[in-house]
Amino acid sequence: MLEGTKSTNVESLEQIKNRIEAAIPGARLEIMPNGSASGQHSILVDNEHGLRIACFLRDDPQLRLDYASNVTGIDWPETVIKEKKKTRQLIEGVEREIEETVETRRPGYLEVVYHLYSMEFKHGPLILRLRTGDRAENVHLPSLTPVWRAAEFQEREIFDLFGIRFDSHPDLRRILMWDEFLDHPMRKDYVDPDDFEYEPTAHGAVLDRASQHRQTS
Amino acid sequence: MRQAARQAFSKHEATNLIDEGLRSELTKQGIFTTTLEDLYNWGRKNSLWPLGFGLACCAIEMIATSMARWDLARFGAEVFRPSPRQADLMIVAGTVTKKMAPQVVRLYNQMPEPKYVIAMGACAISGGPFKQGYNVLKGIDRYIPVDVHIPGCPPRPEALLHAFMTLQEKIDRQHLTGPDRPRHARADVAGEFPVPAFGEHDLVPTMNPEVWQPPQHAGRD
User: Fold this and answer.
1) How far apart are CA B46 and CA B32, in angstroms?
2) Which residues contact A16 (CB under 8 A, 6 or more apart)?
3) Domains in chain A, ordered, with CATH?
């Protein structure tokens, strides 16, 4: 749902999704519901049509999402999701309700989130998501810098800290860390250098690392 | 009297000091005595020219110190130099990121001797609240010798003034000759320090062991 003050055409996310699918044949979109109080649901967009969908959102006369306010990354490592399911089964002739935990393995992937607003209609945000194939090789996503120039530095930062490669980005270099740096520090499995040789007031996780350092060195 | 002074001078020649009682007695008689060392240190400590560079929010407090309300000019140190070649005091005011650390060391190397360093604020002395981060240096004293550390986040201008006065006292105690003379008076000690390189995971090396080493019994177990 787009919230705006001056907007005359407040559309629901479903309507926007349907209009995109009508305008761009073959586009695969999915609405990701947000269960929190803010209720800011987002649209997951497929990588092949990402650039065209972005152009549509910017140029559509009803939406005119001309301003990418924020671009950020999320790291979703591989996890096992445990779900409790209640099933009815016949046990010794009596039907009973049994609780079962079903474990499903969800492979890891990286996500980029774009917060889009319209300066013209003063509405927004529309939240756009793009998802990589995995966390190792298939980390290429279309760059939306050709659509919104404001995304240039933020996509560089996401490349630096998460390791997502933005194809057709005009200047994809590290922006915060130095060029020789190899790691991506915002990934969940990043291990920072073992420089815990002097921790005078250590506690918690730092204390563990400091005592580990003292044992090994 | 003059003979006594000569005796006193020869007596303290080794340490370049005049007996304080004798000196005040001479002053009462209208005779001003000094040593070259005292005169030299007096001139140096009252014209410290800081290098004008700030790294983070501590720099705002440093700027405030140099303005009218706290008036660093009282200490002869209001001339913030835009070039390291003209400065003899480096105030490391703020968070030193690992990406910035080589440049800070290089600026220090470019300053002419005698040169001094004030590490201002929690970040500059230890990394502060960012100590456990992946991108912040855990104190600039790992690469260059620091004369005065100021804690605080950020330290108030009064704290920086106190650091100035502490540094002035330190300069006043320095000897031109003798075994404990400072680095700039020794030909055998280099005034430049190795600039760390950008490594694949961290700065290389992570510290200069000649400048800083972790204390032996540091931290709790």
Assistant:
1) 20
2) A2, A43, A63, A126
3) 13-75+109-179 (3.30.460.80), 187-217 (no CATH)
pTM for this entry: 0.83
Cβ atoms within 10 Å of A10's Cβ, excluding its own: 13
Provide long-range contacts, Cβ within 8 A and 24+ apart, for B37-41.
B37/B175, B37/B176, B37/B177, B40/B176, B41/B171, B41/B172, B41/B174
Mark yes or no for CB contact B219/A178 under 8 Å.
Answer: no
Parent domain of B22: 2-33
Overall number of domains in chain B:
2
- Asked whether residue B212 is assigned to any structural domain, the reply reads no
Asked if pLDDT for residue A55 goes beyond 90, the answer is yes
User: Is the separation of the CB atoms in B90 and B52 below 8 Å?
Assistant: no
Does residue B9 sit in the same domain as residue B69? no
Q: What is the pLDDT of residues A91-113, one digit of tens each?
A: 777 888 888 888 889 899 999 99
* Chain A residues in contact with B133 (beta carbon < 8 A): 192
Contact A206 B132 (CB under 8 A): yes
Instruction: Give the closest-approach CA distance of A98 to chain B in angstroms.
Output: 47
ipTM of the modeled complex = 0.79
CB distance B215–A198 less than 8 Å?
A: yes
B11-32 mean pLDDT: 74
Chain B residues in contact with A183 by the CB 8 A cut-off are 201
Note whether A182 contacts B200, CB cutoff 8 Å. yes
B114/B167 Cα distance (integer angstroms): 13
